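Hello forum,

I keep getting stuck at the same step: I have a sequence, I want structure tokens, and every attempt I make locally crashes halfway through. Rather than fight my setup again tonight, could one of you with a working pipeline run this one for me? It's a single chain of 124 residues.
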Amino acid sequence: QVQLVESGGGLVQAGGSLRLSCAASGRTISAYTMGWFRQAPGKSREFVSVISWSGGTTNYADTVKGRFTISKDVAKNTVYLEMNSLKPEDSAVYYCAASRAISLPRDPPSFTTWGQGTQVTVSS
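Reply #2:
Ran it on my machine without issues. Output:
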């Protein structure tokens, strides 16, 4: 079973950037499709981005496409989410998750392992 720990969140002004990290342990991330989700207060958890087990395919929510980039470093067993041109509406707790699905799922139930989340706050 893989364990996930997110880091890199914080407070940033609108237009700024942050890079989130998701450090995995217990299993190699090469065995999983990895995703990022976010949840703002009073809202349901929403899909942000996903990367295939091979790292060759990625997918993004329309709200972040062109601003966020997901990547993985197998040697470090870590998944990243580079976030640029941040907006106040990007404020949320960001979660890393792992799925055994071969496809690129966007629904939370397809992901079996979750990290504890890291807070991102974007001020206007």
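The chain has no helices and eleven strands. If your local run keeps crashing, start a new thread with the error log.
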